[in-house]
Specification:
By secondary structure, the protein is mainly beta. It is 9% helix and 28% strand. It is built from two helices and twelve strands; from the N terminus they run βββαβββββββββα. It has a five-stranded antiparallel β-sheet, with no helix packed on it. The longest helix has 7 residues. It is globular, with a radius of gyration of 15 Å. Bound molecules: zinc ion. Zinc ion binds next to loops.
Length: 159
């Protein structure tokens, strides 16, 4: 599926091919909450990095969070956002260079409605943030047991 995305002020626009476009993965970690706002969680999609095309690249800024588990104390995950309006756009990590993870909030293309959700990192959620689960949803206090690709394959939703 081809996805088109943009920041709020329109300085950055991007397109990419996404074999895993269902917005099912709600991340309640403190980094997503603080940098993304929303309902206390952020939603990442799976895309192919080599297909990512960006207009307004000069307006991009990258944020790498502190991470005590990394040897240099910095998370290798690069969160790209617009330096003018602050919209979070996508994540990229050199450990998985072929993948890119756009935030569903930045995508303008209508996304498919996921049949079930994964709620992850609920151990880090804000106390006021209610985890509202459907009958087939899964909840993980840390990382989920399935990758974005495996979730789409199990439900036959690969596009
Ligand atoms: Zn912007």
């Amino acid at each position: 599926m081809k996805l088109e995305g943009s920041c709020h002020c329109g300085s950055v626009r991007f397109t990419l091919e996404s074999p895993h476009p269902y917005p099912y993965n709600r991340c309640y970690c403190s980094i997503c909450r603080k940098t993304q706002g929303g309902g206390g969680y952020a939603v990442n999609l799976g895309g192919e990095y080599e297909t990512l095309k960006v207009e307004g690249e000069e307006h991009l800024t990258v944020y790498q969070a502190k991470d005590d588990r990394s040897p240099d104390g910095i998370s290798p995950l690069k969160r790209h956002f617009c330096s003018k309006c602050g919209s979070s756009l996508w994540c990229w990590d050199h450990r998985w260079p072929d993948l890119v993870h756009p935030f569903a909030s930045a995508i303008d293309t209508p996304l498919p409605d996921p049949p079930e959700l994964v709620h992850l990192m609920t151990g880090s959620k804000a106390p006021w943030c209610r985890v509202e689960t459907g009958p087939d949803d899964k909840v993980f206090t840390e990382y989920p047991d399935e990758s974005l690709a495996a979730w789409h394959e199990r439900l036959n939703l690969t596009s």
